[in-house]
Design brief:
The complex is a heterodimer. Chain A is an all-alpha fold. Chain A contains 41 helices and 6 strands. Helix content of chain A is 72%, strand content 2%. The radius of gyration of chain A is 39 Å and the shape is elongated. The mean pLDDT of chain B is 90. The chains are: A mainly alpha, B mainly alpha.
Chain lengths: 945, 109
């Protein structure tokens, strides 16, 4: 479990960082640091076992069906990376505490930073590549938040967007590549994939998987041609640059290449792609760094260059080269993070990072100058610092690696080293040497201990690893390389190998670098004179073009007009359907047609005529509404004839309440629709609608004339209806027993719809234009002489108990015969609506003693409680049960939990329908409809007197 | 009979879509109602046609119709009432708030 805990602790820390900021920046930083330190401690406790050669694993099944498990593993590579992430993270928290100003939202910063840290630790500890991808995306997201932390700066926002687009886009390719890899290997677990190297490399899908995964790695680790995003990410606060863009995130791509090294490396494809990309990145980065003026830009391009170096080493594909790569990851993290933090200190104190405006700082800020000198000399590869060790080992490798010609790789790598020496020296010479100037934007001096402690510690490490590599680093490198290559490694790191070719190349690079720096001014002039391809401009052109296309497409299809959106949608679907029909093969159906029936034919004819009449008369709204109601009733006849009594009952009752609802609404709406659209438009609409109708009819006919291509699950429901659910009405047992969960969701939806209507009416009735219109509303059609005719009142009074009895009857028999909670609720609602119609809303509402909101809630609760009841029997939610009871003098009858569930359905349906209708009626009251005090207008007794 | 029912579904679909393409809210709501009928009938007949074979388990029954589409359509009918009610209220609200019942936004609105 400890591995999952290590990955989890930073996330918990993120939560605490956000919560404790009210107690002060110090407390907030202390919490973040404490969680990081705890994770580091847990890692350290696990480290000895890993260094002995064990691999620690934690397995938590998450979604085993799709191969996604929260599996973690810790091997040597994981220890190295997790140690770097957590260790440098701890230093960064300390540094950021002093670097960020009081005005910056420090709590938010640390929350983002800890989120990032957790995601990063997750990547390096994941044993499941799907889980790894989740963390991978999380680093892209959290780095977006961190780069754009100063949201008021345009560069910050642009840099964040660019980083997200590039690394996120690479992440998408990575997902595809990982899925292919998992499919080849037969598992998404890294520990399994790592054993399948032979099979993966032999697979036809090896190259696609390799290309997609490398795309993701190159984008993340800023390798050519994706190197342009990293310098723009420097708009982030310096602690972010030091953490994400030197030590951790940009190494995620490299980590993954190292992680998958045993599976993917060793082929010509791997060698040529990875080595070439690394080499180009190494040279472009080093060359550009030499001519930049912003301290952070110099460091950013030098980072690009060193990442290229590591990539190149991994590309070579030998165990020795991988060893150097791993060692250089460690060294680069130490000196580069120190340099970034020192650059931040200079910016903080001198208020500029422009190297042309600096110089002579060694007199003003000696501590910072010392840190920079040590770290920069290490970056240049000057003995005895740690950068020298890995550079020597690197040169040793490239000398023995043929690339096109035997010496080309060595020559180019030496050129890279030479440039590296030049920009490292320039950093020290132009920034810190020379005379003290009088025109700094702000008089610089060394900061307080809190700010320089972190980079100083790293500088000490640079020196110590340089002096005692075997004591301090070799064991870690051995463990990590052992994990990368899968073979035990015992690396020998030493300063002196005798007078070798690499030593000569190294000396040449140092002397050449010094010479280049001497000639820097003329070089700079010729560099400035030549136009260079600008990655940001290209990126902006690309994204702007894509955005413009997207905008034009949206403007065409979603221009605020519902009718054109529907027209486009329907036309597209119809055309696609037509294309599928024309391009496919089809035969006539094999089922024999159901014989014609004269009554059915008459009903069909009526439906056709009434539908056509509705279309012809749709401008007269009341008439067309009545006609639509007629169609609904005719359809319910069709249901009854075609063996669906339940549907017929539901259709009739729903039709009644729907028409009543629309009549209530029509009271306020205009009674006619004006003739507005042109003939062309109407013709266009008729063509679209006709084509869609034709297609639907054809589809329906083709479907009805064919048998099922495989047996459906209906047979199960029919067979189990009686023995399994205890009811003979198979439709009802599906609703309340087999698919009870669906029904549970449906009544909740219905309840929410009713509450939504209530809320809409509330907002219409609150002060505003709608309310004003209602108050000033005048009936636009003549009113009846008696609003509440006596005959209607008397008849509905008589029918109320009868209708309710019918409702109860339908409810009780629903499990065995047509009926059930849905229909019963609707019948009850109609019985009550009849009272509204006869005696008016106000009169009836005053006499109804129950609240419709409560009814909806009660219904859902009853249904839920029935479902939960199953838990007490040790069964899953909503499992139904039934038994037969014999109670004298009654005959034997059935008691089923489904009846209780159906009661919940009944209550919710009743409450929802009534709430919808009652809400609409409230509008009428606001519009000046008086509330009658008597049940009917003309009182026979009083009139007689 | 299948051909006639298919024709009904097609006619209701075409009528529903034609009304939904009108410019005022009320015909759009009527169109939606017609389309709901068409869809419900379509799903219902996906169980194929059967006369006098209700899905009521009985020893004397000679066969049963497919109960599954019926169960689906039953709840769909009730849900479509809720949906219609919400849209009716939205149409009413826009008429009362904006003073017109046009569906499409015009430029500048």
């Amino acid at each position: 479990m400890t591995l999952a805990l290590i990955a989890l602790l930073p996330f918990v820390g993120a939560l605490f960082a956000g919560l404790t900021i009210r107690a002060g920046r110090g407390v907030c930083a202390a919490f973040a640091a404490a969680f990081t330190a705890l994770a580091l401690l847990l890692l350290a406790l696990n480290a000895p076992a890993v260094l002995r050669g064990e691999v620690i694993q934690t397995r938590i099944d998450w979604l085993p069906q799709i191969g996604l498990s929260a599996n973690f593993m810790l091997d040597g590579l994981g220890v190295l990376f997790a140690g770097l992430i957590l260790g440098i993270g701890l230093l960064i928290i300390l540094y950021a505490r002093f670097y960020l100003s009081e005005a910056d939202p420090f709590g938010r910063f640390l929350t983002f930073l800890m989120l990032f840290q957790g995601a990063m630790v997750g990547i390096v500890l994941s044993d499941n590549i799907l889980l790894l991808l989740v963390f991978w995306e999380l680093t892209s997201l959290s780095s977006f938040l961190l780069i754009g932390f100063w949201g008021h700066l345009a560069e910050g926002r642009q840099g964040a967007r660019m980083a997200l687009a590039v690394t996120g886009g690479g992440g998408l390719a990575m997902i595809a590549g990982m899925l292919i890899l998992g499919n080849i290997a037969g598992s998404y677990d890294l520990s399994v994939i790592l054993t399948q190297g032979e099979a993966v490399r032999a697979s036809d899908w090896y190259l696609p998987a390799l290309l997609l995964i490398l795309l993701g790695c190159f984008a993340k680790s800023a390798q050519f041609p994706f190197h342009f995003w990293l310098p723009h990410a420097m708009a982030a606060p310096t602690p972010v640059s030091a953490y994400l863009h030197s030590a951790t995130m940009v190494k995620a791509g490299i980590f993954l290449m190292a992680r998958l090294w045993p599976v993917l490396a060793g082929t010509p494809e791997w060698f040529w792609i990875v080595t070439t990309a690394g080499l180009i990145t190494l040279l472009i980065g080093a060359k550009t760094a030499l001519f930049k003026h912003d301290l952070k830009a110099i460091l950013a391009y030098s980072t690009v260059s060193h990442l290229g170096l590591i990539t190149m080493l991994l590309g070579i594909g030998t165990k020795a080269a991988a060893t150097v790569a791993v060692f250089h990851i460690l060294n680069h993290a130490t000196f580069k993070a120190a340099l970034f933090m020192a650059a931040g200190i200079v910016d903080h104190e001198a208020h500029t990072r422009d190297i042309r405006r600096l110089g002579g700082l060694r007199h003003l800020m000696p501590i910072t100058a010392g840190i920079v000198a040590i770290a920069a000399l290490s970056m240049a590869g000057i003995p005895p610092l740690n950068g020298f060790l890995s550079k020597e080992m690197m040169l040793e490798e490239v000398v023995h690696t043929p690339y096109l010609t035997p010496w080309l790789l060595a020559a180019l790598a030496t050129a890279g080293a030479l440039l590296s020496v030049a920009y490292s020296f320039r950093l020290v010479a132009h920034g810190f040497m020379g005379p003290v100037r009088s025109d700094y934007p702000h008089k610089p001096h060394d900061p307080g201990f809190g700010m320089w402690a972190a980079p100083a510690l790293l500088a000490v490490l640079v020196v110590l690893i340089g002096l005692m590599p075997m004591t301090l680093a070799a064991w870690l490198v051995d463990a990590a390389v052992g994990a990368v290559t899968g073979q035990a490694v015992a690396v020998k790191i030493s300063h002196w190998h005798g007078l070798t070719i690499p030593l000569g190349l190294s000396a040449f690079a140092i002397l050449g670098g010094a010479l280049v720096l001497r000639l820097h001014a003329p070089f700079q002039r010729s560099w400035d004179a030549f136009p260079k391809p600008d990655g940001k401009a290209m990126f902006d052109t690309l994204t702007n073009t894509l955005a413009a296309i997207a905008r034009r497409l949206t403007a065409f299809s979603h221009n605020g007009s519902l009718s054109s959106a529907i027209a486009i949608g329907v036309a597209t679907i119809t055309l696609l359907g037509a294309y599928a029909f024309v391009s496919g093969t089809h035969a006539v159906g094999t089922r024999t047609a159901t014989p014609m029936n004269p009554v059915a034919l008459a009903v069909w004819l009526a439906v056709v005529l009434v539908t056509l009449a509705t279309l012809a008369l749709h401008r007269q709204r009341l008439l067309s509404l009545v006609l639509v109601g007629v169609i609904g009733l005719l359809i319910s006849l069709g249901f009854a004839w075609l063996s669906a009594p339940d549907l017929a009952l539901t259709q009739i009752t729903v039709e009644v309440v729907t028409i009543v609802l629309m009549l209530l609404a029509l009271n306020f709406l205009p009674k006619t629709t004006p003739r507005e659209s042109s003939n062309v438009r109407r013709l266009r609409d008729a063509v679209i609608a006709g084509a869609a109708g034709l297609g639907t009819a054809g589809l329906a006919y083709a479907m009805m004339m064919r048998d099922f291509s495989f047996p459906t699950i209906s047979a199960f429901h029919l067979a189990q209806s009686k023995p399994g659910a205890g009811g003979t009405n198979a439709v009802n047992t599906i609703i309340v027993d087999f698919r009870g969960y669906d029904t549970f969701g449906e009544i909740i939806v219905l309840g929410i719809a009713a509450l939504l209507i209530f809320a809409l009416v509330e907002s219409l009735l609150s002060p505003g234009p709608a309310n004003d219109r209602l108050l000033a509303w005048r009936p636009d059609s003549p009113r009846a002489g008696d609003r509440h005719p006596m005959m209607l009142v008397v008849a509905t009074r008589l029918m109320l108990p009868l209708a309710m009895m019918v409702g109860v009857y339908l409810y009780l028999r629903g499990h065995n015969l047509p009926g059930g909670g849905f229909v019963a609720g609707l019948v009850f609602a109609i019985a009550l609506v009849m009272q509204y119609m006869a005696s008016g809303y106000g009169w009836t509402a005053a006499r109804l003693r129950f609240d419709y909101h409560a009814l909806i809630g009660l219904g859902v609760l009853v249904a839920a409680a029935t479902g939960i009841g199953a838990w007490f029997g040790g069964l899953p939610f909503l499992t139904s049960g039934y038994d037969y009871v014999h109670l004298w003098p009654l005959e034997e009858f059935e008691l089923a939990t489904a009846a209780l569930f159906d009661l919940g359905v009944f209550l919710t349906v009743l409450g929802a329908v009534m709430l919808a209708l009652a809400s609409l009626s409230r509008l009428s009251v606001r519009a000046g409809q008086t509330v009658n005090t008597r049940a009917y207008d003309i009182e026979p007794e009083t009139e007689a007197k | 009979m299948e051909a006639l029912i298919a024709a009904t579904i097609g006619l209701l679909t075409a009528g529903g879509i034609y009304l939904m393409l009108r410019a005022r809210t009320f015909p759009v709501i009527l169109g939606l109602t017609l389309l709901s009928y068409a869809v419900n009938v379509f799903i219902f007949v996906s169980g194929r046609l059967a006369v006098n074979l209700p899905a009521i388990i009985d020893k004397t029954a000679t066969g049963y119709t497919d109960p599954l589409p019926q169960a689906l359509v039953l709840t769909a009918i009730v849900i479509s009432f809720g949906m219609t009610a919400v849209i009716v209220l939205m149409a009413l609200g826009s008429w009362l708030t904006a003073g017109h019942d046009r569906v499409d936004l015009e430029d500048g609105q």
